[in-house]
Amino acid sequence: MANNPQFTNAVAQDIATAYLDAQDAGTACIITIYTGSQPTDADTAIGAQTLLATLTCSATSGTVSDGAPGGLLTFAAITDDSSADATGTAAWCRLLTQAAGTTIADYEIGTSGADINFNSVAFTSGSAISISSLTITFPEG
């Protein structure tokens, strides 16, 4: 059976808005960056992966606009982690609500072609880790 849903631009923007509402639930969301294999899905508990860094999003973490086509979530300023927790190779991250620690989503990390790209994925304990801009597209069609 085929799985090929097609959303209108308005529905794609509504999905982006619902996602933003979930990540802003209660207070600012956080982005935790890990080594190792990304879990099977965002409902899977973190195992032996090493926490490298934690970055905090603004209290209102972003805005949704017409991504033409689709909904475009553009994050507001993300506070750097001024001192990375460990040394390792960043492979993935988990976005959580800060207040309840509820998982919102997991994303792949790389240097190009990943969900979130850094100049280098080699993180060093004590170094500053930053994300200068972040957008998520919720496509129509």
Explain this structure.
The chain has one domain (9-38, 47-138). The chain is built from one helix and eleven strands. The protein has one helix at 9-23, and strands at 29-34, 51-57, 62-66, 71-75, 78-79, 88-89, 92-97, 103-110, 116-117, 122-123, 135-138. The strands form three sheets. Strands 5-2-1-7-8-9 form a six-stranded mixed sheet. A three-stranded antiparallel sheet has the order 3-4-11. It has a two-stranded antiparallel ribbon with strand order 6-10. Strand 7 (92-97) and strand 8 form a beta hairpin. The mean pLDDT is 91.
Major sheet size, sense and barrel closure: 6 strands, mixed
What's the Cα radius of gyration?
A: 16 Å
Order of helices and strands: HEEEEEEEEEEE
User: Average pLDDT value?
Assistant: 91
Number of strands: 11
Strand content: 25-35%
Identify the strand order in the major beta sheet.
Answer: 5-2-1-7-8-9
In total, the number of domains comes to 1
Spatial separation of the terminal alpha carbons: 19 Å
- The helix tally amounts to 1
Low-confidence stretches: none
Concise overview:
The chain has 141 residues and is mainly β. The protein has one helix spanning 9-23, and strands spanning 29-34, 51-57, 62-66, 71-75, 78-79, 88-89, 92-97, 103-110, 116-117, 122-123, 135-138. 11% of the residues lie in helices and 35% in strands.
Question: What is the secondary structure topology, with strand pairs?
Answer:
Elements: H1 9-23, E1 29-34, E2 51-57, E3 62-66, E4 71-75, E5 78-79, E6 88-89, E7 92-97, E8 103-110, E9 116-117, E10 122-123, E11 135-138
Parallel strand pairs: 8-9
Antiparallel strand pairs: 1-2, 1-7, 2-5, 3-4, 4-11, 6-10, 7-8
